[in-house]
Every structure is written in structure tokens, then in C-alpha cells.
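User: Show me sequence and structure for the first protein, then do the same for the second.

Assistant: Starting with the first protein.
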Amino acid sequence: MLTTMPLRHDSGHLVSLFENATEGIILTDSKGCILLVNPSAERMFNYESGEITGKPIEVLIPDKFKPHHKEVREGFYHHPSNRSMGQNRDLYGRRKDGSALPVEVSLSHYRKDEELFVIAFIVDITRRKEIEANVKRQQAELERISTEMRKLNTELETKVEERTMILKEALQKLEQSQAELSEALDKERQLNEIKSRFVSMASHEFRTPLSTVLSSASLLGKYTKSEEQEKRDRHIAKIKSSVKNLNDILEDFLSLGKLDEGKVESHTGEFDLGECIQDIEEELRPFLKKGQQIEKVYEGEAIVCSDKKLVRNIVINLLSNAIKFSSEGDRIFVRTNTSNNKLVLEVQDEGIGIGEEDQEHLFSSFFRGANATNIQGTGLGLHIVQRYAELLNGSVALRSKLNEGTTVSVFIPLQPAPTNNSSKTQTSSNEDDPGH
């Protein structure tokens, strides 16, 4: 068993600790008068040795906070406790020249001869604030780059070669920012992890369609004869498909950014749910693989009261995933039930499925299942679906087995259905029934 020897009660040790501590240490009495200040605190606030001893602690408080600080100090003296100050808000001190000093402060107390003494431990966080400001600038730059990429993408069909070079430059900026952000965010572990995953995924997902666009654009110039129109059409189709993939990636990024910034709000209104799903099916039909079919089943009221745009985005994300992760000839099922003022929406596929070890992470941003790494995607679809559902006070559930398919269920509370003649009941429908 290890034993330790007690430290001798040598005042020299205490003086050494006080004098050489890297944190600022200030001792005040029950009236808020400064009794002791260590050298670190004096340097921190730009005072000479002994210059603020005997002065009230408010000399180190910015002018606009002084009146309130006195009230807070007196409250602390009535109910003293060891604690940190500035939780969830910025805290500042006042240097000798009047400039503000961002700080973290921890308070401790003790009593001697029936008098209360307070010890303040102070840390200068100026460098940390500079790093946080740099992080915000980097985030703004990333958002600006993403916005420019989306704008440029709309003109890609007519300026393929020019747009490819611009996207490459933007990608290089994103990759370059990885090293810069990694150094600045060494104390922000979670944000750094998300950024690294984003850049890694973006590098892979952008390069694949861009390579296709470049190669197809190069080959188009070789087919100049009229009888080679079929070959030209084939490469044009590849370019269009790659452009769609790039647009889908950008849409996911922008959707996530808007959600994180709180810019997405729900706006409730009445709409025909079956008609909405039918429009989405027609929009996605060109992207169905050979032999794939979408079968629809509706139960309950046709007219629902919710946010049509958010519901539409949920369905598009789920159907796009089902198409992507299913094989040729597979069926995809869309089922809705609107009863008891609740919408239950299910999208089921017969695709590759998801392993049990991956299912708990599927709603995290940028997560890809182990069996989906070779299939193009951002890993944001289900995360965005969950965020949209939460905006509607709903929830999402998932069931899946490897090689047997996946079912995603979304539960959304609805406003009471209208009772006039515009409300109609939906029974069932499939892709050949245009009634919804």
C-alpha cells in the first residue's frame, strides 16, 4: 500500500503557491475590499504591485456592470457558496486603462474570527475568445462557399467545363479549411469531429460526380456524327445524373445549415396528402431503377392540416433513400393513416437493409451504414427527416434487417380536420390510381 507524507505547515509553501500561480487570485473581505492580489492578477489587469490593495473589488468591474455587481456581491455574502461565475454567458473584467478583459471566475470562501473572506480565482480567456471568433469566421466562409456552389450548379448544363473548375476550386478551399479549423478547434472536440466528417464525406461525394461530368464531357466532343446520337445521349444522361447528385448534396448541406441556425419554421395549413405524395412520385419517377415500383396505400382523411412543405421534404428524403438503397425490380411502399388527429407515414423498401450495430447511429449527421459506403449520399437524409419531424412535434422510428429492407415510420400530430364539404376520406391507392 502506498502512503504519503503530510506536507509541513510551512508558510513559505503557501506564499510560493500564491506568488507563482498562473491563475489570478484575489482575496476580499466581507465589505468587498481587496486584501491580497497575486502577481498574475495584477499583470492580468495591468496594475503595478500593491496598486489595488485596499480598493473595492468594483475597481475591476466594467462601469456598466458595477451597480448590479454590488447587489450580486451582497447576495453572495448573505448566502456564500463555492461556485463558478459566468455560466452560459460572457463575463468581463476591467483593466486599469478601462478596456474589457474576458475572464472566467471561480469563487470560494472561508470564515476567520467570525468574518467572511472571499477568494476569487480568475482566468484570462482572451485567447479562447479569439479562437471562437475565428471559428465563426470559418463557418461563415463555409456557408458562403456552399451558397456560391449551389448558385453555380444551376448553370452547370451549359457551362460544364467552366463549372467543374469552379467546383474544384471550392473543394480545394474546403479541404484547405480542414487543416486551419483543426488547429483552431482543438478545444471544441464535438464541433471538430463534425467538421472532419463533413469534409471527408464532401471530398468523396463531390469527386465522384465531377469525375463523371469531366469524362462524359470529354467524350461528347468525340461523337460528331449523326449516327452517334445514341452515344451522345448516353453521356448527356450521365452528366444530368451527376448534376442531380451534386444538387442533392448541396440541398442536404443547406437544409442542415438552416435547421442548425433555426431558420426553418413550421407553417400550418390544409392540403391534400394523397395529391402531395402523388406529385412527389411523379417528380421522382425518372430516377426509379429498372423495374422499381412505388405502391401507395392511404387510410383516413385526405385533407390534413399540417406544414405541407415539411411533410413534402420528409417524403422526398424517405423515397429518395428507398430508391437509392433498393435494387432493380424492387417494390417501394408508401402508407399513410390519418386518424385521431395524427398522421402516420411509412416508407418501406426491399433494399440492402441496415445492420443492428449501425441502426443506433443512423439519425446522426453524416453517418453512413457499413454496407452503404459505396452508394452515393451525404449521411444527412434521416437526420434531416428527424429534425423536420421534431419541428412538427412528431417523431421517427426505424425497423430494418440486412438484405431484407427498411421501414421508416414518421408520427406527426395534426390539427383537427375541417368538417365542411372540402374534407374527404381517403381509402387506398396505388400508382395506377390518380385519385390522390
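Switching to the second protein now.
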Amino acid sequence: MREYSLARTSNVRKAEELFTYLQKRPKTEMVGLGLIYGPPGLGKSRFARQTAIQNDYIYFRLEATMTAKAFAIKLLERIHQHFGMQSLKVRGTGSEIFSRVTDILENYNDIVIVIDEIDYAFRSQKILGSIRDIVDETLTTVVLVGMTDAKSKLLALDSHYFDRCNFFCEFKPMTKDDIKLLCDEICDVKLTDPLVQHLSKKTKGNIRKLVKSLYSIEDIAKERNLTTISPEHMTMRN
């Protein structure tokens, strides 16, 4: 099995539109805030990380116990790493540290920050406020990544914050065409259409379940020395 990067599934194409739209917006007239959301297992975090790596964006993953000050410190460290700045011992209050973040970002027009696991920030108005200040005070593009109810939670917490989001992208279960595309990209054996159809029903469009199934399928193909595999060749493993 080949490791997959970013097969251009329907979710990926829509998420790419989000980044393109926000980066091409009239930056002095519109804030650059977007949200990617959806159920677990659909590849949101993988997309976010891979896109950040491939395009030299800043990727930041929130943690469950993170405070507003810890958020400011970690974000400042990521920014220093991104620009190759010398890492210094961070001192001061959370507000002072965050001011250093915005001071740096104000000098750049094309920075993109991807913040994953945004759901953890819903417990902290200070972290949400800090992110809002970034898009209000600088020209930075910020893309949030969260779970299924992230959009509704954002609206419930702060309607003004919700209104700042200029692009919402919902990750949905993969279609049969998406699954076929992913199978062709990562499998070392060819899967027949009936087997792809079976996988579509079995995994319900979930990437994690699909990859697990494909790993088992390839094991069976190797055992039987098959280059093409269909439901007739095997008994699917759970």
C-alpha cells in the first residue's frame, strides 16, 4: 500500500476552494477567517497538515488543556520557527506575548495559519478572542478545523464571530467516486468496481475505515498472488 497524500476527493476540492477564496479576498475589506468542519474519520486533520506542509503555512493544533497564555506562547514559537527567527525564552503576561504575535503578523500580508481541533477553544473565550483579534488586526488568513457541530457552536457562542467567517467547508462522507480515486492512488493491487461498491457500503465513506479495509485486502491479495481483486476472490475481513 502506498501512502496517500491529498487525493482530490470532493472534500479536498471544496477545502482547496476555501483557501483560494480567502487568500484572494480584498484583504483590507474582508477578514480572512474560514472554517472546515465535519465528522471524525473524513480526513480533515490530514488535509490541514498536508496542505500546511505543501504550501508553507503555519499549522497549529490546539490541546484540550491549553490556556490562553499557553496558546499565545505556542503560536509565537510556531511563528518564530516559520520565519527562521531566533527562539527566545518567552516572558510576560498572556496579553504581552500575544501582542508580540500580532506585531509580527502585521508586517506580513500573505501569512496563513491553520488551527486544528478548534473545538477545544469553545471552552475558552480568551482563545477565541485572540484568534478574532488576529483576523481583525492583521491581514492574516486563519483557517479553523473542527468537528461536526463546530459551525453551530461558533454561532451559539458569538454571532459576531460567526459573521466574520467568510467561507464554511463541510467535510462529508466520501462518495463512491471518491473511494475509487483513493483506492487507485494508494493500492498496489487493482480493485474491481464491485469491490469498490462493497467498500463504499462497508465504510460509509469514512477514510479511516477505508484505509483499514484496504490494508486487509492487500494482505489477502499478496497471500493469493493477485494483481486484481474482487469480492469473489476473498472473504472481507472486519
